[in-house]
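subagent[fold] <- orchestrator: predict structure for attached chain, return C-alpha cells only, no commentary.
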Amino acid sequence: MSLSKLGLKGACALSAALAMNACSVDPVGGGRGGQGTAGAFDNPAGGVGGVGGSGGTSGFGNPIGGSSGTAGFAGVGVSGAGGGMTGMCGGDAYAAQTKPLDIYVMMDESLSMIVPVDIWTPTASALNQFFASPDTAGISVGIAFFSGGCDIPAYQTPVVPVGELPANAMALQMALAARFPGPGTATEPAVRGALAFAKQRATENPDRKQVVLLVTDGEPASCNATVESTAAAAAEGLMTDPAIPMYVLGLGNINGLNQMAEAGGTGQAFVVSDPMQVQAVVDAMNAIRGLALPCEYRVPTPTTGSFDKMRVNLNWTQNGSTTVVPFVGDPAGCEGAAMGWHYDNADAPAQLVACPQTCDAFKANGGDVSVTLGCPIVVVM
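subagent[fold] -> orchestrator:
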C-alpha cells in the first residue's frame, strides 16, 4: 500500500506541553525561538532550536559539546508563522500507514457450542458480519477449529488460509457453515498450534503483524489441558521473536479466560455473557480488532530528496490541533515518557514505533496520525 502525501506542507506543529527542553514557544508571537540544548553523548547533533512566535526569528542550538566532549552542531530553529504555536519548517507530511494486520482465529467447536443451547449459530452469524464489515477491509483473517484432537501440528494448518478481507469473507463464512461441533475441548494443543503457525508466518512476513484470537465457550477439558497449561502456552508465544500476542473471546462467563489473555499479553479476555446476542459478539470482535491494530508506521519514501532519519516527526492530530510526539531513542526510552516513539531499527529504520502508552492514547482518543519528513527530529530532553 503506498503512502499518500497530505496536502498540508510543513505540518510541524509543536505542542508546548511536549516541548520540554527542546524549545521554547512564544504564544503571543514576535518572540525569538529558544536556544537549543547542548550536544550530548547520545545526541551529538545538539538540541532543536526553539519555535519562533509570529514573525519571530529562528532559534539556534548550543554549539558547546556534550558530556562526551564531542562538539555539538547548532540546533535548527524554526521561524514562526501566524499564531506562534505552529511553525512552518518546510517538511512534507504523509498519512501514517501501519503494518498490515493478520488474525488467525482458533475457534472452539466443542459440543457445548450446541448443547444444551445452540450458541454456534449466533456466534457464526456475528463472525460473518465481522468478516463482511467495511470496517475490517484491509486486515487479513484465517480460521481453524478445535474440539478434542490432541495433535498440535493439525492446528498449524488453517482450514481457511489467512487472506485479506473482504475478499476472504466468503471462504470464512462457508467454513463456519460446514462445521459441526464434536466432543472435547483441547484448548492447549490448539493454542500451541495456532501460535506456531503465526510465528512461522511472522518470520516469513516481517512487514505484517500477526495475532492469534482464541474463541471459546469453555475451559480446557481434553489432552490433559488445563487453564494453567494453556496460559503457559500463551506466554511462550510472547517469548518468541517476533512475539505473538493472543486475544481471547469468551462466549459466556468462563473461569480462567483472563488468565489466558494476560499470559498472552493482551490484558484480559473479552467476555460476552450472553452469546445469543449477536451484536454483542460483533462489538467484542471490533474491540479486539481495534486493540490488535499496530502502532507501527512505515517510513515514507520521500517524494523529493533522500531520507534523513534525523529529520522525521510523528504527528497526532485531534480536533484540529496537532501534537508532535517526541522521539525517545529506543524502547527503553518509553519508560517514564508521557508520550514517545522510536525506530524499529536505529541503523536501518523502516518503521516508527509508538510507545505503548502513546499507542493506547491513539486508540482511546482517535484522531489522525501522520509522519513528517524534513522537520528536525523533536526529542525528549
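orchestrator: received. Logging for downstream: The first helix runs from residue 16 to 19. The mean pLDDT is 81.
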